[in-house]
Amino acid sequence: EDYLDALAWAESVGGQKGLIARADKNAKLIHDWIARTPWIANLAEDRATWSNTSVCLKIADPTIAALAPEAQAAFAKDIVSLLDKENAAKDIGSYRDAPAGLRIWTGSTVEAADVEALLPWLDWAFAVTKAKLAKAA
Length: 137
Prior knowledge:
Number of strands: 3
Shape: elongated
Largest sheet: 3 strands, antiparallel
Strand content: 5-15%
Radius of gyration: 16 Å
Number of helices: 5
């Protein structure tokens, strides 16, 4: 029954084409935000390899990028922790073996409004974490 419900939902949003369009729209929201946000970049440097379902990001801010890899990882984990505590995002840390950063699911099961709502939270968490780092220095 769960499978049939999932198929019925997929059909209700336009079938395969609709599912792809939803994922594309969600990823575009993230990619457009990246283009206007100097502290973040897509982990995949070649645009042809950008994902439309699991957007992996790296922190491009020069101050953070100049830190040792362990410190960069700690910085990213602090962002993830802040977002988790605020219930703004769950499980968005980069994969264990990936470079430090964030990973945002933008697949077709995600509502575009939720992606849009996340973006200011990302900026907030970065600003708070960077300010904390500056105080510690």
